Amino acid sequence: MIKLGALTLENFRGCKHYNMAFGCKAAAIYGANGAGKSTLSDGYTWLLTGKDQQGRADYNILPVGAVEGVEASVAASFIASGGGHFALRRVYKPVFTRKRGESEKHRTGNTTDYYIDEVPQKAGDYNRFIAEHIGSEEDILTVSRVDYFAQAIKPDARRERLLSLFSGGMDDAAVIAKHAELAPLAEQMGTYTIDDCTKRWKANRRKVNDDLAAIPGRIDEAERAKPAAADVETDAAAMPHLAAQRLKIKSAIDRLRSGESASGIRQQISTAKADMEQAHAEYIRKSAGGNQTLENQMAVLRQNLSTAQAAAAKHSSAATSSETLAEGLEKDISDLRQQVMDEHSKEFDAGSGKCPTCGQSYPPEMLESMHGNFNAAKAEKQAQMIASGKELSATRTGLAKQAEADRAAAQQSQTEAEHLQQKLAALQKMLVTPPAWETTADCQKRQSEIAALEQDLQKVSSAADTQIEKLEAELAPVEQQIQTVTARQSNADLVKRQDARIAELKAEEKQLGVQLAEFDSLLHLADRFVQLKAADVEAEVNGSFRTVRWKLFEMQVNGGVKACCEAQVDGKDYGSLSNAERVNAGLDIVDTLGQKMGLMLPVWIDNAESISHPLKIAAQTISLYVSDEDKTVRTEVLA
What we know:
CATH architecture of the domain at 1-134 and 605-639: 3-Layer(aba) Sandwich
Radius of gyration: 67 Å
Oligomer: single chain
CATH superfamily of the domain at 1-134 and 605-639: P-loop containing nucleotide triphosphate hydrolases
Number of strands: 13
Strand order of the largest sheet: 2-1-4-5-6-7
CATH topology of the domain at 1-134 and 605-639: Rossmann fold
Largest sheet: 6 strands, antiparallel
Structural class: alpha+beta
């Protein structure tokens, strides 16, 4: 339990100064309307949460018309039941800045300073300290404001908080164990919750119901697929007679198609055609034998002709190459001849007769030596050129002779090739071409014999075909009767299969009905479980409070349960209670929740003058009374 030791407000909203040592005892604060009683509770809440009683963080904290530099602050000291104590202080400071070019400062914002035991703190560290040593904002308001939990918190969050605090040990298995009628659910649960099982059962029930609804249509489809009933016994007796009749007719047809007369004629036609083919081959062999010698001679001539033509082409190419090289040498010889003439025309030039280096005149003997050296070099160079010219001339002459020889050889080979071509043409004329086999008398005779045999076969076949057509006409109705009986027998098998399928579908329909009933039973038990658990949870929660009862579940017309969370006193909803009843209900809630949460904080009670008999609670209370006689706030610390 944490109690308030002292509270100090400076320039906080309508309160210029307030300082009171509560000594961890209950207190009564008196004052007329507007005197600042609510400001004290707002300051206390702002110190712990940064918000006022209505949960507003952004509101006017400084007094109306406060001069520049005024700061608002709230400080309090707290003492825990274990003997620990700490002090908190929060200071609100406006920020003023002067813009460039302006003479006066303007308020541009605000800042807040935080202190723990008068040691400056950062906002995060300050808030963490409160959360660790006191509680979260919601926890603080829950156990210090009598109207907060029943009115300010949303119903879903309120209900969740109650269930987490008072029914944490009431799991599904415990509820089932408590109520014998729910025993079948225990067999189905396993490691799952009833909610999980319900979802699974509903999904399975939908599938079973869909399958069950489809069964009649599938049965009707199977009925409509059954063919008309047939006389099975009559068909069974007729089938052997029809099969024997069909075999007799087919055998007669086969005998006619394989008759001996037609077969003999076909054999004669086949033999005559084979003999004609053999005679044709012999005619071709004999015709080709008379030209064999000529063909052999022509083959030799063709080989020799090819050899001669190749030799002529080879010699002609060699001659052309030699001529090309000789022409190139002729140009080289002409250029060398011009170089000899140019060298021969060169004369010794002594210049000015002076050394170009030192500028002195050459001695006569040196000039003569230089002249001799010039002539010797000139003669040697001319001799080299002449020798090169002679060598080139000899090579050119050799190439010219080689080209002439190649031209002659090419001409000779060409003449030989032309002679061979003439001989080949003469032999070609001597070849004998025999007349076509189809024009010979032997061929025409054999064709006439075959045509006569084919005419005889046509006559015999025509007579057989007439008889075959008659028999096939007799066979057609027999085949039709056999097909009809076979189809009826197949239909009978299909009827049996469809009947078996219908029986299966009816069995499946019965099984699905059983499954549907089982799922309906389980879902009914699940609904009953929800109802019983709701009653158990409400009883568990309500058993912890003195006057307040919580309505956590609302029964629906269809038997379902709708979650809700409404405080009631003597059967009346919280919203319809009088002010005194609401305050006492809030005290019950604050006291019970605080003890369950392990967090007991000072509780502020507004409009305390309307409560004649306030509910006694364990926590420190600070009651606010409207008193017209007290124009300023007056505090009494109670014994």
